[in-house]
Design a protein that fits this description.
The complex is a heterodimer of chains A (about 150) and B (about 80). With about 150 residues, chain A is an alpha+beta fold. Helices cover about 30% and strands about 35% of the residues of chain A. Chain A is built from three helices and eight strands; from the N terminus they run βαβββαββαββ. In chain A, α2 packs antiparallel against α3. Chain B has a five-stranded mixed β-sheet with strand order 2-1-5-3-4. Chain B has about 80 residues and is α+β, with helices and mostly antiparallel strands. Chain B has two helices and five strands. Chain B has a single domain, classed as Ubiquitin-like (UB roll), CATH 3.10.20. Chain B is globular and about 35 Å long. Classes of the chains: A alpha+beta (about 150), B alpha+beta (about 80).
Chain lengths: ~150, ~80
């Protein structure tokens, strides 16, 4: 049985995604010896300076049910388009400080081309289609709402 | 007929609540609903948002079914 037949897992996690979680996830794939290439995208919260104030953290919220359904659709479409062995997506909800990871996309395939193309496709789809909202928090307790470009 | 209207992200700051129930006319289009929404919250005129009906972004000329969930979604900023 391949990963394709597994039930969809929840994408959202509360707070930042730890480097340990990413390392553990890589380690779990060492038994899958049909894999020849992984690609990983990590989104990290950037300390943007806006009008003299510096972003300290992003607080993520979402239309969670709609977002989870869209994550599932995007996953399915990626499995159709690319020959993947497996795929994992994690996205933060709640507060993530600058320098911490808020998105983890992990694709695995026999060869690099599929893993890399699928990873890029997933990140672009997630940013464009999933109703997640980032509130950039500044040091003086003010905020602004982030918009993906 | 009853519908649930949900507000997200920046839009919640305009409406000052996350969810409310509305009683709307049958076969109301999404566009007509939007006009009511702006009537109730005039500040929405200055905001960018999309309306998802039962989690789908539909054409504005589509009608809203009974018991629908209408989500008012500001621009996405995931990732």
């Amino acid at each position: 049985m391949t990963d394709k037949k597994k039930k969809p897992k929840r994408v959202f996690v509360e707070g930042p995604i730890s480097p340990e979680k990413i390392a553990t996830s890589i380690a779990h794939h060492q038994v899958k010896t049909n894999i020849g290439a992984h690609d990983i995208f990590l989104g990290q919260v950037r300390a943007d300076e806006i009008d003299g104030k510096t972003v300290q953290a992003i607080e993520y919220s979402a239309h969670e049910e709609m977002a989870e359904n869209l994550f599932h659709e995007i996953r399915e479409s990626a499995f159709e388009k690319y020959d993947l062995t497996c795929m994992h997506i994690y996205h933060s909800l709640g507060k993530v400080n600058t320098g911490e990871i808020c998105l983890f996309v992990f694709t695995s395939s026999k060869h690099r081309q599929m893993a890399m193309d699928a990873c890029r496709y997933l990140v672009e789809e997630i940013k464009a289609k999933v109703p997640v909202f980032g509130k950039e928090l500044f040091e003086d307790n003010s905020h602004q709402w982030k918009v993906n470009t | 007929m009853k519908v649930t209207v949900r507000y997200f992200g920046k839009i919640q700051e305009v409406t000052d609540l996350s969810e409310e129930h509305w009683d709307i006319a049958e076969s109301l289009t999404i566009d007509a609903f939007r006009a009511y929404l702006i009537e109730k919250y005039p500040a929405l005129k200055n905001e960018t948002y999309q309306l998802a009906v039962n989690q789908e972004l539909l054409d504005l000329n589509k009608t809203i079914p009974a018991m629908a969930e209408i989500a008012v979604l500001p621009p996405f900023s995931g990732g």
